[in-house]
Amino acid sequence: MGAKGPGGSWSQRQRVGSRDVGEDERGRERENLDQPAWAFCLGRPASCGMGAIGTLHWLRTGGFQLSYERWWASRQQLQDVSANAVALAMCAANNQEVIALDSNPTKPCKAEIELNERRLLGLLDTVCAIIEWKLSNGQPPHPSNDVTVWEDIGAHLHPDDLEQLRKVRHPGLWCFDLLFTTIHRGQMLGVYSGELASGMFERTTSMLEGYQFCEMVQHQPNPAPFAVHLRSILLVFCVSFPFTIIGQISPTSLVLMQSALSFSLLGIEFVSREMEHPFGNDESDVPTRKVMGKTRAAIRAILWKHSSHQESVDWIG
């Protein structure tokens, strides 16, 4: 005989406890049978799904930040190229104006000095046109990023330089090399002091660095294998996540939750993908044609303002 207590004998309490455990197990089995087979097979703990949401959101937010910095850095570099080109044109034109005010008609090399300055301005205009052509892959821009007047490459080059341009394989590097040569030639002719020539060399170098940075961004996207795998994981997650919470929330809440998650994760992925390629013919791309068009217009305006004899620069435009 087992000892009796307030709740009955020990064997009686053991039978009652076993019966309660059996009823709980049968209840869970009935719940599992009520769920569809595909939901049971694909179902995972909801805590795992929540952890995956946090991880994917963190990865895509970081990717979005990197893509945005990539786009904005490209825009800044292009603007720096434009500012340096206009500054170089001002330096050259103002020195040309000083020479033009010299009333001594016998000044040595005066014609050569003027020709050197005008050649420099024509090269700056051509460099801007080549940069736009290279970064846009020769494609027309989006109408919102287009300009009213856009002249052909080399439209303001000296005829001798234009003939050489048609023969070179790398017109951009050729123009920058000739820019350095023209600045050095001006220094040798006594147009630029050592300090001024040094500043012009520095600005030309900054232009070249900005141009090559934009080229690097254009031809080097984010690591392709990592990006492709992450997008695949993201799509699989967005499709499979609803199965992890079936039976835990109402159908309406399930639809709303899945819509919000998919819009958030896939929306961030789409915007990041667009900003990975800053240069192109989309409306949201860097407006290369508009920036370079304004720069070329400024160079032409500077040239005509400081020209002493308009008829002598007909080859400039």
UniProtKB/TrEMBL annotation:
Listed PANTHER family: UPF0187 PROTEIN YNEE, VOLTAGE-DEPENDENT ANION CHANNEL-FORMING PROTEIN YNEE
Pfam families per record: Bestrophin_2 (PF25539)
UniProt region (Disordered), positions on chain: 1-30
Highest taxon listed in the record's lineage: Eukaryota
Record's GO cellular component terms: plasma membrane
Subcellular location: Cell membrane
Keywords: Cell membrane, Ion transport, Membrane, Transmembrane, Transmembrane helix, Transport
Membrane topology listed for this record: Multi-pass membrane protein
Matching InterPro entries: YneE/VCCN1/2-like (IPR044669)
Entry's Gene Ontology molecular function annotations: chloride channel activity
Basic and acidic residues composition-biased segments: 17-30
Species of the source: Effrenium voratum
Descriptive protein name: Uncharacterized protein
